[in-house]
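anyone seen this seq b4? input:
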Amino acid sequence: MKYEIKKFHDGQVSSKIIDNGDLEVHIRGNSYEDLFTAASIKEAWDASNILNKSAVSILTIYCLLGQRSDRRFNINESFDLKIISKFINSMNFNKVQILHPHSPITLALIDNSEKISHFDFVKKAYNSIGSPVLISPDAGAYKEAHDIAEKLNADLIPSNKIRVDGEPMVKIQGDVNDKECLIVDDLADGGRTFIYLAEELKKQGALKVHLYVTHGQFNFGFDELKENIDSVYCTNSYKDIIDDYFVTQYKVFQKSTSLS
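predicted toks r here
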């Protein structure tokens, strides 16, 4: 099914269906404009398919906006993922596919949703490095890291953030001396947590430390990361990164067939 998107000078988005049939919409989903554009396409498609009850609509989101706001952190603050999920539910897609959501709360809040696995991308990074030890950065990431380690038949060492005399510290729960390590997580905003973790891993004798995240935001650049992290692997779910040596990016979002 084909459609056209028109953007007006004031920011308005309008959609037109070119031919009918099943609908597949692919968006990065990391902005309100992306979500509203998907809603515009779906509304036009619904109007064009009133009599076509067998037609199926699928929305694929590669980096869901607000996915880390998976609870009300303070009583006087908004529950942002709940708001975003309600908006997605209002579109009434038959299926919503989400790449590596931050929390299972996402799939609970969004109707007809399912997770797109990130395993194949971790596997590519793992093989590219040459069978490193996997590192889970915190307790929240441990289960997924454990599942991946089992599938890869890889060693896994957990780490955790603790406080000693009120100061945050990283505790490595295993031996990394003379080993190459791959930290595995879902998302990097600035990457400060990974910087502290990589620093501690190298203090404990790690030969090299690499980082895999599915959603690479890296909003503060790579200068600090490069001090203790040897390379980064991620998808282009959030944005395209141009880097000749430090970042290896796997393409999941194609501008030619998706909303930009």
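Helices lie at 32-48, 80-91, 104-109, 119-129, 139-152, 192-203, 225-228. The CA atoms of residues 21 and 52 lie 8 Å apart. kinda curious what u guys think
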